[in-house]
Write a structure and sequence with these properties.
InterPro entries: CARKD (IPR000631), Ribokinase-like (IPR029056). The chain has 12 helices and 10 strands. With 279 residues, the protein is an alpha/beta fold. It binds ligand NAX and adenosine-5'-diphosphate (ADP).
Length: 279
């Protein structure tokens, strides 16, 4: 489908932030399961988990190597370690698919086949086709090229960079999932729907680890909208992806104030950004 892209704005984003209701508890708000990070990239797990908690979620369950779990807990002692019931999974940030251990392959395989919504990033993008529930994948240009390599030989990095909305849509149509394509403008596409753009992120956001933060924001939004996704995933998944990119861009703007930022700065400014959005 090629209708005019929609530019996501505050009014649209406000509809997709779950505010705790009277009587909610940590489970009814939504639990996010996270399998991210690795010995070479422990920071990706810390960044994603910190961002998820600061976006607002009932609980995060983290599954990973003990050293990475230690780093996550040192930053966020609220996190619960180990597998348990979750409303959504965030997987893949800070991982290398080529170096996946059998244990990790088993954990990731179980997660994507559980039927709950999955946010799939970086080193788990090869598992998109195995998922049995709704998926939003979060590639940058090189990652989208790799994900489409077996599907469309025209999908080069240069081609994707020269027309990101077309390739986000092509990725969504070929893989049958929601695609959030990262870049200076973020493009969200879903099979059969008009694309959504998220614009005006500061260029300072182009720094290591901000994509890992975005994964955490999106994971939290997906985990706190299980009911909406079950009712109408085709509406909810792209809307939640666009809202995550919008919050991420606005938190980056707030953190930056015109100057440089780190990925953790963006995560730290998420609560103020969300409070301002909710007014
Ligand atoms: N703190 C952390 O733990 C971080 C972990 N990260 C993780 O790192 C993994 C790899 O992500 P990438 O996006 O880098 O993966 P990509 O494989 O897409 O990018 C690597 C590419 O960048 C090229 N490259 C490397 N250094 C370069 C340089 N100095 N100048 C120009 N090109 C250069 C390489 O040749 C390669 O083609 C992912 O799992 C990601 O989640 C990143 O998010 C960065 C932060
Ligand atoms: N020039 C830019 N202007 C604004 N935002 C950008 C720019 N380049 C990248 N971004 C954003 O920064 C983030 C980088 O994510 P990613 O490439 O996954 O990095 P990392 O793997 O280091 O976390 C994405 O949210 C992307 O949309």
């Amino acid at each position: 489908m090629s209708s005019t892209p929609r530019v996501w704005d505050a009014g649209a984003a406000r509809e997709w932030v779950a505010v705790p209701r009277q009587g909610d508890d940590k489970y009814s708000r939504g639990v996010l399961g996270v399998i991210t990070g690795s010995t070479p990239y422990p920071g990706a797990a810390v960044l994603g988990v910190d961002a998820a908690m600061r976006t607002g979620v009932g609980m995060v369950r983290y599954v990973g190597p003990s050293a990475v779990t230690g780093a996550v807990l040192a930053r966020r002692p609220e996190v619960v370690g180990g597998v348990g019931r979750v409303q959504a999974w965030l997987i893949g940030s800070g991982m290398d698919a080529q170096k996946r251990s059998p244990t990790l392959a088993d954990e990731l395989g179980r997660a994507v086949r559980e039927g709950v919504p999955c946010v799939i990033d970086a080193g788990a993008l090869d598992l998109v086709g195995d998922a049995t529930g709704p998926v939003v994948m979060t590639p940058h240009f090189r990652e989208l090229q790799r994900a489409l390599a077996g599907h469309d030989s025209d999908a080069t990095v240069d081609a994707i960079a020269s027309d990101p909305p077309r390739w986000a849509q092509r990725g969504a149509d070929l893989l049958g999932v929601t695609v959030l394509l990262k870049g200076a403008t973020t493009w969200v596409a879903h099979p059969g729907s008009a694309a959504i753009s998220v614009t005006d992120a500061p260029g300072w956001l182009a720094t290591a680890g901000t994509g890992d933060v975005l994964g955490g924001v999106l994971g939290a939004l997906v985990a706190t909208h299980a009911r909406e996704i079950e009712t109408d995933a085709a509406t909810a998944m792209p809307a939640l992806a666009a809202t995550a990119a919008w919050l991420h861009a606005r938190a980056a703007e707030l953190a930056s104030g015109g100057g440089p930022i780190t990925a953790l700065d963006v995560a730290e400014d998420l609560p103020t950004t969300i409070a301002a959005l909710l007014g």
